[in-house]
Design a protein that fits this description.
The protein contains ten helices and seven strands. With 269 residues, it is of the alpha/beta class.
Length: 269
Amino acid sequence: MSRAGTFAGDAADHYAEYRRGYRPSEIEFLAGEFALRERSKVLDLGCGTGQLTVPLAAHAGCVIGMDPSADMLTHARRKAKEAGVGNTAWLVGYDSDLGDLEPLLGEESLRLVTIGQALHWMAAETVFTTLWPLLEPGGGVAVIANGTPVWTQDAPWVDALRDTSSKWLGPLRFPACGSSEEERTGYAELLVRTGYTEVGEHRADYREVFGIDEFIGSFYSAAPRDRLAPEQWELFDEDLRQALSAAQPDGRFTEEVPVRILTSRKPKG
């Protein structure tokens, strides 16, 4: 994970406030699929501000949230405290630090490792290989695409978002962030190659409607803010709001949210 600087400061603040969370049905699916119990240990790798970590904690003995951004983890700790969740642990670390968890776990093993919309920042095959000895037999890995980035949506306001952002921030790749069919297929192939079995995908689609503040806040949680001086952000924000308001006069931004949970297991035998 090379995103520590990317998700710091204001970006972490926007992520904590506006980034889409996980619905109860998705949490229930993970808990049931991997038979989480009172003593189960879970690792949420690339946990961000704890959108997945905190609700998962109700179904496990302990959930470890690991992320390279200390700012993101500050928000995660606060969310856990506000929710009254005490069975979480927060570690600053990159995917390259996964091996350090082995002495921390001791004789214990992980029942589940979740990676929610973060694997595109990592060396996926190395991650899957490194996780193998940390998992208990029958445990597994879940790679989750919790919707698609706003700039990939099929809506009238997408061109306004992309054009205005590119004008101010320079050339943007506008990645799919691990949510594309091609990326998920690649992850599935890597899991099989690494030795994981029962590789499959759970799908759930829904729709959300946002106001302009929530919509822009979500975009800012992923935007490369370091490309502009602080005083330029107010001008950019004003330009972006005008462009989006012209493209969507009613101020209601409807997003299609395709959820894809790629599941796999370490064999018991």
